Amino acid sequence: MSAPGGAGQRLFIGGEWVEPDDGHYEVIDPATEEVVGLAPEASRAQVHAAAAAAREAFSSWSRTGPEERAAILDRAAALVVRDREAHTEIARAESGATTATARGMQVAVAAARFARYAKGALEPVERALPPQISAAGPMGRGGVLGAVAVRRPVGVVTCITSYNNPWANPAGKVAPALAMGNTVVVKPAPQDPLSVYRMAAALEEAGAPPGTVNVVTGSAPAVGEAAVDSEDVDMVSFTGSTAVGQRIAEVCGRGMKRQLMELGGKGAALVFDDADIGSAVRGIGTTFSFYSGQICTAPTRVIAQRGVYEQLVDKLAGLARALRVGDPRDPATVVGPVISAAHRDRVEAYVELGRKEGARLVAGGGRPAFDKGFYVAPTLFADCTKDMRVVREEIFGPVVVVIPFDDEEEGVALADDGEYGLIDYVWSDDVARAFRVAGRLRAGGVGVNTVGRNMEAPFGGFKRSGVGRDVGSYALYAYSELQSVVWPG
Fold first, then answer.
1. Which residues pair with 183 in a beta bridge?
2. Does the annotation count 34 as an active-site position?
3. Considering the entire predicted model, what is its pTM?
4. Is 262 a catalytic residue?
């Protein structure tokens, strides 16, 4: 039996479902504050055992043919789809996402990523290089040297995932890592880890050999620390806060471990006078509705040209007030809870800070009147300045700040005035200007008149928003090392 029932979830180590050394902790539904299930507390020894199991499995898995790896990933995708309603329910319950989001943006995206990297396993890994003519010398006789650059698996990859998407985020790491022939230790966020165990069960049923996928959890940072510092780990793929990413990078630096970091964001949305205001409002409004603002790619920092400033503020305020906040199981709900009471308190503290800093509160700012649940009202601040903490720091909630600007130079300067550079946005009907401005922004991605994502485009950040790129074939590059092979022609 892959995943056990009511006694509490077990760890998944070396192909076995293992009782945790340190007991269990409660996973709480953010909407009801009820217990969803019991997650295992791994000991440091168990985390290192998971990494050792991955190391043992690597030698055979890395030599497995790409067709076999592709078949396993394809079967995993089909199994996730087969059980999607049960997966949707557990994802909704532990993450607080609306049912539609849990089904369409979490479980469905995870299945799509397994299917995508089933194809990715079959992508060529060799690139022929031009032959080089060498003259006779100390290195030997003259001749022609051929060469090829080959992508090889890195080894054992620790995947540390974020709480805002307990299906798509882990799948986006595990699937390309396995496709390239790596083995993985997955350490999910402590708030909503149960979905990742369901993912592991699907991979087990799909035929992933023992040790290729391991899952360990814990409510304290020690579990993640052990998953990073194990000598069996060759690479760490992390999604989360910049502060935690910096600590992980220090450990990786001491061990010369590869890193892939997708960290914080404070996305700037530059809205010019000639923009389609309706399109801009709909895009920026996703900060309120999409995961209740708990997403690093959100356009939380609006920089509006003065000709449309008041109109944009008015329309954003109207949208914020109109969005229905409530039970994520209700199909009419648009904004569900944030992940925990602690995070709700953090977001509310930022709202109070915005007031004290002198920002004009236009919408929201209070706690919705529910008996239970960790709810935050969609909140809009106007008349902000670049030095305010609510403008500079990642709040990770349904809070949008608006700053006016006069001309293009000032707008670009405001957009780039910060430590983050994940995804920015430009709204303008002048396409030439929009692309010119995009080229000047220090961000890993720029949306022009859209918040949509092309899922083959490289994803990652400039500055303190991360290191490396993934998504599409770029993820296959991220989870591989280049080896040069040279021979006499």
1. 156
2. no
3. 0.95
4. yes
